[in-house]
Amino acid sequence: MVTHSRGRRRAPQPAPPQDDNLAAASLLQDMALLQPNERSRFGYKRAAKAIVGLTASIRDVVTSGSIRDVPFVGPASARIVQEYVDTGASPTVDTAVARSSHASRVQAARTMRGGFLSEHAMRQALAAPAADSIVSPDAFRGDFQMHSTWSDGGESLETMIDACLGLGHSCLGITDHSYGLPIARGMSMDAVARQHEEIDALNRAFAGRFRVFKGIEANILADGSLDLQPDERRRFEFVVASPHSLLRRAEDQTARMLAAVQSTGVAILGHPRGRIFNTRAGVQADWQREFAAAAERGVAVEIDGNWHRQDLDYRLAAQALGEGCLFALDSDAHSIGELRFTQYSIAHARLAGIPADRVINCWSDDRLSEWMAARHEPPPSRPARNGTVARGRRPVR
Ligand SMILES: [Zn+2]
User: Fold this and answer.
1) Which residues have their alpha-adjacent CB atom under 5 A from ion ligand 1?
2) How confident is the model over 102-130, as pLDDT tens digits?
3) How many angstroms is it from 372 CA to the middle of ligand 1?
4) CATH 1.10.150 occupies which residues in the chain?
């Protein structure tokens, strides 16, 4: 349950973008959930995926008579999309849901599509005019969550650097998985030592052109502690702490998530909810308290741009901005092709109205180093006021 304590202000919510492509694709996802066999399920899902990946508006595609030219959109899917464009709804889907014994499945899945952006809506958000202070692709210097062959990524670190250089970036943070996540081929501390030698050599080779920051993606355990001990965390320039378990629980996990951002050494809270499009709601927590705690500790909250995650999305990001948070806009790429997911992160940040100055990806190498080093310091002890943490302070830089 998300709760709001008395006295807290609610940040103004940004208006949701008109995303017809996502709405049309959602109708096809509804149909997929109602299909009796894998083949027809797959057909609707594939059509839905093609539509969220379109660069053009589905409205324009239908109006120009080219809906059947979209790969994987067959006659049944085309009819539903046509109905949506004509009326804003689909009687075909409504009837199928009403007649199905799986209607509750559809209702549940619909709640797991909130705040996502289609490719078209993402591009619109990037192109929409905004104040110069708002984060933009031009202000973006580097991506701070990605994986290489040191854990479960598909490419070497050097290949990732080359690809980031090709995108016009001047730094990156490598965040292979820690040993606590063996399913993602998490690195032993011995492997970490070898990876750091490679990074040092690459930083020498790319000196003046590109800088690699030594990071790790640590795993937030059930009690909110991390799978890396404090002395192990110190071996990295920065730690991303992310939830990878207990992501389908209905009960509140605020205590777990608060403990994670309050752990010494944590610089970024990675994909804070752990949600997945259409299938997983992720962690339930009092996000306003979590964001206040992150702001207090100078921990950046991530807008993970992986299409299936989009976590935080612009709605929660606006709330985090209201609490004074810093942000990390990351691809969470496991291959060079996925590096473009930062476009989604930047699009959500623009919708939330986040200034570039609050986005670590826009900072200079020196400012990044200073901020990362400060995260390893224990928090200054302050007298508690009635046992509560003082609020309204801006993050320490
Ligand atoms: Zn992760």
Assistant:
1) 242
2) 999 999 999 999 999 999 999 999 999 99
3) 19
4) 20-114
- Both tokens of 249, joined, read 């629980």
Euclidean distance between CA atoms 20 and 26, whole angstroms? 10
Per the rule left: phi > 0, alpha: psi between -120 and 50, beta: everything else, 185 is left
Centroid of ligand 1 to alpha carbon of 154 (angstroms): 15
- The CA 201 to ligand 1 mean position distance, Å, reads 26
From the CA of 240, how far away is ligand 1's center (Å)? 9
Superfamily of domain 134-383: Metal-dependent hydrolases (3.20.20.140)
Give the pair of three-digit tokens for residue 70: 């979209």
**CA 83 / ligand 1 centre spacing (Å):** 38
User: How is residue 56 written in tokens?
Assistant: 């053009």
Outline which parts of the chain fall under CATH 3.20.20.140: 134-383
Block residue for tokens 């990044």: 368
Q: Please give the DSSP secondary-structure letter assigned to residue 178.
A: B
Residue 192 token pair: 């970490």
Q: How far is the CA of 226 from the centre of ligand 1 (A)?
A: 13
Separation of 72 CA from ligand 1 center, angstroms?
30
Contact (CB, 8 A) for 295 and 394 = yes
Q: Which fold has domain 20-114?
A: DNA polymerase; domain 1 (1.10.150)
pLDDT tens by residue, 359-393: 999 999 999 999 999 999 987 776 555 544 444 44
* Residue range 13-57, pLDDT digits in tens: 888 889 999 999 999 999 999 999 999 999 999 999 999 999 999
How far does the centroid of ligand 1 lie from the alpha carbon of residue 8, in Å?
30
- Give residue 270 CA to ligand 1 midpoint distance, Å: 7
Peptide bond preceding 312 in cis form (omega within 30 of 0)? yes
Nearest in space to 147 (alpha carbons), one of 191, 177, 190? 177
pTM, full prediction: 0.93
